[in-house]
Amino acid sequence: MFLINIGRILMLAVWGFLVFSPVHPFPKPLNIFMHIATFFMVVMHGLLMALYNAGQPQAKKLTAAGKVRVFLFGVFELLALLRRQQAELKNQDKS
Fold first, then answer.
1. How many CB atoms lie under 10 A from the CB of residue 57?
2. Could you report the per-residue pLDDT of 35-47, keeping only the tens digit for each?
3. Which of 1, 4, 27, 77 could be cross-linked to 73 through a Cys-Cys bond (beta carbons 3.0 to 4.6 Å apart)?
4. What residues in the chain have per-residue pLDDT under 50?
5. What does the alpha-carbon distance between residue 7 and residue 28 come to, in Å, rounded to a whole number?
6. Could you tell me the CA-to-CA distances from 68 to 22, 49, 95 in Å, in that order?
7. What is this structure's pTM?
8. Distance (Å, rounded) from C-alpha 16 to C-alpha 22?
9. 26: left (phi over 0), alpha (psi -120 to 50) or beta
10. Which UniProt keyword terms apply here (predicted)?
């Protein structure tokens, strides 16, 4: 879980860097790359959130807060969700 939290912190740093880019633009070639990277990040995290939510049963759909967390943290949040689901399954098997 420690490494997942480190990944979340790093992902927040990346988002901060990408959001800061339009406020204080970089020189010309890097500026174009930052716009492409921001677009790619938004699209990929949006797809990740939509695909995860579509694959879950109706009772396990993500809440609005869960969707925001998956959008912000991406695969790191999905790893945390996977671990929680595995722990729930182990607890159900023991009962």
1. 6
2. 999 999 999 999 9
3. 77
4. none
5. 30
6. 22, 9, 33
7. 0.85
8. 11
9. beta
10. Membrane, Plasmid, Transmembrane, Transmembrane helix
